């Protein structure tokens, strides 16, 4: 899924950890890095996100821990 | 008059000096050393841990062989002793393991998302608010699991049931026809109790793992009860001095490791047909 489509579908904006600083969301698909403004993990809506379901992703807290690819490589 | 309800923060600043928290009920004792008995729940001194700010459990991603779970409300009583015995075997046999007394962790009740919609429950779990996501990762990372439980009203402890209920997101992968993460892993079970209900408790625990494709190690269930003619005060001394307890629990742990060394998980991967509900 391309990131533009994911941004339209994703749950980031409703998440208790989300801080809106006008950066691009759908952190699961980000090429590298994490959010520049979200620093506290206060809950995660990724497990219920349609992007997660469609892509069969296995991780959580992409905004603070890195994208699916990044977290997969870290293990 | 103001009333402070349980769980609500009390006014005032934290007291200086050492503090000890009862892992069973959360009572906090401000003293140089913990009390001999918890004034709130009667837990022994062994239940107290030095109080520190609660941090959510995170899995570090390192591989290990056996996950050892003490499912009791008490971290260091009879069931804790059974876990100690299993731990001795794991050390002696040189396998890597991690032991957790679940009374020291926060595990929420399962939200049962699957009962809203089948595909609403899958790994990773939707509840990322407690310590369970780290346990999910460790269940998946380990090759075998040993679970120890007390008998509470003819059943496992409620804490352990919460822990096992929360494995639903892993089990549900099989129903959703997604790649499974646990088939072929090994399970062993130890149960301690005062009177009856040991085999029922063990089988209740096993059913969870059976539904996730685990293989029960041969002679993989060890249990011991004392007897209704005794009282719970004497159970601990009895269990600690009973050679049968040592033989059975250590035997079970040995059998888990030996079965794990057959590397069945790798051989069975992709060859099993999930038969579960």
- Overall 3D shape of chain B: globular
**Basic shape of chain A:** globular
Kindly state the percentage of residues in helix of chain B.
25-40%
The share of residues in extended strands of chain B comes to 15-25%
Describe it.
- The complex is a heterodimer of chains A (75) and B (277).
- Chain A is mostly helical and 75 residues long.
- Chain A is 32% helix and 0% strand.
- Chain A has 4 helices and no strands.
- Chain A has helices spanning 3-9, 50-55, 62-65, 68-74.
- Chain A is globular.
- Chain B has 277 residues and is α/β, with parallel strands linked by helices.
Characteristic terms for this protein:
heterodimer, A: 75 residues, mainly alpha, globular, B: 277 residues, alpha/beta, five-stranded parallel β-sheet, three-stranded antiparallel β-sheet, 32% helix
List the helices and strands and how they pair.
The complex is a heterodimer of chains A (75) and B (277).
Chain A: H1 3-9, H2 50-55, H3 62-65, H4 68-74
Chain B: E1 19-22, E2 28-30, E3 48-50, E4 66-70, H1 78-92, E5 97-101, H2 132-141, E6 144-150, H3 158-165, H4 168-175, E7 186-193, H5 198-210, E8 215-225, H6 232-241, H7 243-261, H8 264-268
Parallel strand pairs in B: 4-5, 4-6, 6-7, 7-8
Antiparallel strand pairs in B: 1-2, 1-3
Summarize the structure.
The complex is a heterodimer of chains A (75) and B (277). Chain A has 75 residues and is mainly alpha-helical. Chain A has four helices and no strands.
